[in-house]
Amino acid sequence: MRQILLFFSILFSSFVSPMSATAADPKTDSTSQWAIVLHGGAGAPPADATAKQLQVRRDGLSAALTAGRNVLATGGSSLDAVEATIRVLEDNSLFNAGHGAVFNSAGEHELDASIMDGRTLAGGGVAGVRTVRNPITLARRVMTETPHVLLSGPGAETFATEQNVDRVPNDAFSTEQRRAEWEKVKAKETAENARRDQPARPWQIGTVGCVALDAAGNIAAGTSTGGRTNKKYGRVGDSPIIGAGTYADNATCGISASGVGEQFIRHAAAAQISLLMQHREWSLQQAADYVLKERLRPGDGGIIGLDRSGKVVWVFTTPGMYRGAADSSGRFDIRIGNE
Amino acid sequence: MRQILLFFSILFSSFVSPMSATAADPKTDSTSQWAIVLHGGAGAPPADATAKQLQVRRDGLSAALTAGRNVLATGGSSLDAVEATIRVLEDNSLFNAGHGAVFNSAGEHELDASIMDGRTLAGGGVAGVRTVRNPITLARRVMTETPHVLLSGPGAETFATEQNVDRVPNDAFSTEQRRAEWEKVKAKETAENARRDQPARPWQIGTVGCVALDAAGNIAAGTSTGGRTNKKYGRVGDSPIIGAGTYADNATCGISASGVGEQFIRHAAAAQISLLMQHREWSLQQAADYVLKERLRPGDGGIIGLDRSGKVVWVFTTPGMYRGAADSSGRFDIRIGNE
């Protein structure tokens, strides 16, 4: 059904306005508002990035945003929009999620993802999956098909088999660009020979995420990543952890984070933003500014989010963040730098 | 050094008062206050438990509390006290952590633990370890010896090898009692044949945890568990996740949780209690009551905690919680039921 809806929405998205599309769905009416925001990682492009390289990344974000927008514009749910958006980013080799994920210390890929439903506070996450083409889809199955919130490693692979989600060989996630980055990081870390002294930054750019508000007023959020280049020991970052890298609560906001995952875990960063809105009656902007700028360290990363009115916020303490937003008023906005 | 200190403190603990012991340490003075609280799981003993069975559990809690108290009374750190206390509980076959951990669906044991330093907000956790005798010790090494917060599965085992921590065969964690519980749960779940319909409760009692405040004013918290009986798919609960099952911040409190882990993750429960103290200026009692009774569901579990003044709090929505507390005023208190 989702696929049919997506096909339909993609077919018509270029010439049907959002308003007329939502009007066609019985769940929505002409006053229904929806909004969507996505990211492709906190950080900045290399100083020597060409205009063409930047344009390819903008195009990647734009394609993903279009997928999610089309779900919402045709009356689809925020969960469907988040999953559709992140699947496009996972399949795009430019981002550190799914195809194009970074290499771990064994020269392989271990993928993490999570998704949360702001209506019910249900959430699902997977950590360290190796053959699941779209980890965000498996995370959603954890949420809906198990009583659990987080599955990891071989157990999560077993669950993927039972759920019959798309599988690929681990090396299908590999790209030459990521391999080159890994070789560079490996050489550097061996030379430094210091696990403790290795700075948390710079991380490898490209974790992806999406937050959506649908016409029914439901917020959903999701995040997907390959983690950190050359990661060891089954390291789990914030992306698969509800409360750290992903959070959604219809009463407050939805959040997806990118950056130094350990910092987002220590501060329960995504949940903290929601709690500050609830308990201090701060705006999403105030709460996100506080957590990113007062609690985390400069350069730790960034978040995207939206509140229950559909107001989109992005806050990052990195030089840039690959991001974009669209809404029912016709906004369609892609950005990279600190503009 | 820690072992020598422990030996010394155990030797003298029965006839040296806490105050004279702390006075012997240059880090402390006669006004120094310390406190410690531990738990052996939220829940109640079986209705047919004998007085002798209950006494054995009280004795187990008492031995662990003594270990932690002795660290604090001799001027040791809250991190050392938490680790020492939880190691005793892990080694005790009565509790669902280390030896005596529940069986997973494969008839084996997968252990989770975490620890947090309230002075620095550093934290460490391990999920799904299989041969580490004391997971709490490995969690502490994650905190101090890596830039990461959470390691999982085979990667965490590799890290254990590098750190040279005590190892045992997986079946060394087995007890006949836990095997019998597993057989019973398996039969029931197969009969019901319904992953979704299986109630989150009753869980298997016995997750352990400890929170301590040392004479220097530093709070630490830790949690260790075997998870849920018959768990599948590499399920990760709240115990290894900083913010969910464990939290410590010198500015507010320390927390260790036990219960339906998924609920504690969804609500970032341990971190939420700390944040409510910080941002609403609630007492630990108020914050813990709110999270356990207003946010979580009745029966979801319980928490132990203490605030920066050393005030101990336990809140649970189960019929009981295995728990105890001691402090520099001479308190030494073990409880099980709702007294």
Helix-and-strand structural type of chain A:
alpha+beta
Mean pLDDT of chain A: 89
Domains of chain A, number:
1
The stretches of 5 or more residues of chain A where confidence is low (pLDDT under 50) are: 1-31, 196-203
User: How does CATH name the architecture of chain A?
Assistant: 4-Layer Sandwich
How much helix is in the residues of chain A?
A: 25-40%
Count every helix of chain A, treating DSSP H or I runs of 4 or more residues as helices. 10
Q: For the CA atoms, what is the radius of gyration of chain A? A: 19 Å
What order do the strands of the largest sheet of chain A run in, or round the barrel if closed? 4-3-2-6-5-1-11-12
Q: Biggest β-sheet of chain A: count, sense, barrel?
A: 8 strands, mixed
- CATH homology-level superfamily of chain A: (Glycosyl)asparaginase
**H/E series of chain A:** HHEHHEEHEHHEEEEHHHEEEE
Commentary on this structure:
2 copies of one chain form a homodimer. Chain A has helices spanning 2-12, 18-23, 51-73, 78-91, 135-145, 153-163, 176-192, 261-266, 269-280, 284-295, and strands at 35-42, 111-117, 122-129, 150-152, 208-213, 219-225, 246-249, 253-259, 301-307, 312-316, 321-327, 332-335. Chain A is of the alpha+beta class and 339 residues long. Chain A has one domain: Glutamine Phosphoribosylpyrophosphate, subunit 1, domain 1. In chain A, helix 3 (51-73) runs antiparallel to helix 4 (78-91), helix 4 packs antiparallel against helix 5 (135-145) and helix 9 (269-280) crosses helix 10. The interface between A and B is large, with 46 and 46 residues.
